[in-house]
């Protein structure tokens, strides 16, 4: 994992269950947002989004863009 995420504070949704099917996010000091699979804590890859990318993702969620059919 990238060293710039070493001090990140990771958060998991309070709606998550303990079944290993969760993602965690970290809001970084420079405005970026990192996301990772909670099963891979500290060992797996993380996606890092710019503030604009994260805002577009949040907008898609709120608009139902990712809703299962």
- Straight-line N-to-C gap: 34 Å
Strand tally: 4
Question: What's the order of the H and E elements?
Answer: EEEEH
Main pleated sheet: 4 strands, antiparallel
Count of alpha/pi helices = 1
Q: Unreliable segments (pLDDT under 50, ≥5 consecutive)?
A: none
Mean residue pLDDT: 86
- Percent of sequence in beta strands: 15-25%
Q: Radius of gyration over alpha carbons?
A: 13 Å
Q: Would you tell me the structural class of the helices and strands?
A: alpha+beta
Q: Name the shape in a single word.
A: globular
Largest sheet strand order? 1-2-3-4
Protein name: DUF397 domain-containing protein
InterPro entries: DUF397
Domain DUF397: 8-61
Pfam family, one: DUF397
Please provide a written account of the structure:
The chain has one helix spanning 51-62, and strands at residues 11-12, 23-27, 33-37, 46-49. By secondary structure, it is of the alpha+beta class. It has one domain (3-62). A four-stranded antiparallel sheet has the order 1-2-3-4. The chain is globular, with a radius of gyration of 13 Å. The termini are far apart. The model has no long low-confidence stretch (mean pLDDT 86).
